[in-house]
Structure formats: C-alpha cells, structure tokens
Design a protein that fits this description.
The protein is an alpha+beta fold and 122 residues long. The chain is built from six helices and two strands. The protein has one domain: 3-Layer(aba) Sandwich (Rossmann fold), CATH 3.40.50. Helices cover 41% and strands 11% of the residues.
Length: 122
C-alpha cells in the first residue's frame, strides 16, 4: 500500500514495561511523529497488559476497541477507567468483529483475550 509503513514489535523483551515506559521510547515516538502524519500503536487489551496505559502518555489520543459479542460492559467500563486514571484522552470507541469472523483468521490476541475472559466472572 502506498504511503504506509509498518514497524512490528519483534520478540517480547524480558522487561516490556520498562522498555515501553522508558525515555528512549518517548524519544523514538517523537522522532517517528516528526516523519509521519499519523502513528497508530496497537496494544494488547488494557485489562490484561499495561502496554496501553503506559504508551498512552506518549500519544495525542486513544481509540478504545471492543469486540462485538465478547467485551462485557464491566470490562469496557473498567478499561476506560484504567485509561482515564493515567490521563488518557479517549477519542472514541470502535466495535469490531460484528460477525464473529476474527477468531477464524487470527490468534494474535487470543492469548490476551483468553487470559482476561478466563479470569473474569461470567
């Protein structure tokens, strides 16, 4: 796709929280922002990993993504409260996977979602 660049995360470091919250990460995102019109940071779900909360201090705004038919109202509320607690500017919410097709094609977030939903009361 023209005018689209992608940077993957690579292997998980032994200290992801320290890395994401570091001054160097802030500097990297600042340099990237100077070179690109828009940066999109994709993180694991806010209730199972601290990545979104940590990275939100480096961004102008956050789009909260929920999965149709999967994200419970309490999880939505708790996630928004967690982000608000660190001063995140919520731009809006996107509801994805309305037809339940995501699980057929990817297991990218499967580990995180399964951890959250197995630990959550029904």
């Amino acid at each position: 796709m023209d005018n689209l660049s992608l940077m993957t995360a690579g292997p998980t470091p032994p200290n992801p929280v320290e890395l994401l919250g570091s001054e160097r990460m802030g500097e990297l995102l600042g340099r990237l922002a100077e070179s690109y019109d828009l940066l999109v940071l994709d993180t694991p779900p806010v209730l199972v990993a601290s990545d979104a909360s940590i990275l939100s201090r480096h961004v102008d705004g956050t789009v909260f993504v929920v999965r149709a038919g999967q994200t419970q109202a309490a999880a939505l509320r708790d996630g928004l409260e967690r982000l608000a607690a660190v001063g995140t500017h919520i731009l809006g919410t996107v509801v994805n996977d309305p037809d339940g097709e995501v699980a057929k094609f990817t297991s990218y977030y499967g580990y995180y979602y399964n951890q959250y939903y197995e630990a959550s009361p029904a």
